[in-house]
């Protein structure tokens, strides 16, 4: 009798989660891959649909679904590309992704975002499961040490109305939200829970301010892994190194990660210069404690990142390599 698969959970949202899931998907025959995604997105296509239809944001779920979609033949690959397709023309359509529209339509048909995500997973024949962290309609808020407050995820990401030197003092939700039972059950049964890669506040900790998630992460027997960002984010993590990232995670989760994965590979200097124009720099590795084990390696993607027409959201140009990152994760299970 074969032993049950071990379970790997990726918690986050956006490009970082998409990248890691693409790599982990190759191991889905041997491991149960689950993504717990934030439901606080309020920018771009997702934000527009949220405002117009009143549904929960589906953008982070869409990215995770596309990453886990089967791509073993031409038909599967075309379906995955359709799910990611972004319109760059058409009145009212520009900026929207077909996947977001598809999920909104499924929500109309099935009556809930969770049911829509599960159905989309079946259509895409995903290698794993995508789980919304909550079914409650909430926004992400950030209070800064300057006294200023950003009241949506989009405001935190853009930081246009916040003093450049301000640091986030407290991240919270607009109202309390309960973690979904599926997310709590997944964490309880997990063997490995991964935080990141992704924006510390709007992708990772956005999940950890949901009621029930910190306690679940403290109680689980799963190893907790944090994947350090490659670059800082202006208005959020400027001046923070790996030590400060770990301290923030500990303050919200209530436990230190068992491992931190840190890139030691060289970053492209031309891309670093582009980031520096916005005040963003490579994250400095300044953690030297014993509480969290350090795993280093070259985890930088070599492929160029191309801007998609119609996309108005700022995307990362320097990204992790999905395959080397996934290999390091599998070594820990």
Report on this structure.
With 333 residues, the protein is α/β, with parallel strands linked by helices. It has a single domain, classed as Rossmann fold, CATH 3.40.50.10680. Helix content is 38%, strand content 15%. The chain contains 13 helices and 10 strands. The strands form 2 sheets. Strands 3-2-1-7-8-9-10 form a 7-stranded parallel beta sheet, with helices on both faces. It has a 3-stranded antiparallel beta sheet with strand order 5-4-6. Strand 9, helix 12 and strand 10 (293-297) form a beta-alpha-beta unit. Helix 1 (14-24) packs parallel to helix 3 and helix 5 packs across helix 6 (113-124). It is globular and about 50 Å long. Mean pLDDT is 91; it is low at 310-314.
Task: Let me know the CATH homologous superfamily.
Answer: CofD-like domains
- How many helices in DSSP terms? 13
Q: Which architecture per CATH?
A: 3-Layer(aba) Sandwich
SSE string: EHEHHHHHEEEHEHEHHEHEHEH
Overall geometry: globular
Order of adjacent strands in the largest pleated sheet: 3-2-1-7-8-9-10
Outline the biggest β-sheet: 7 strands, parallel
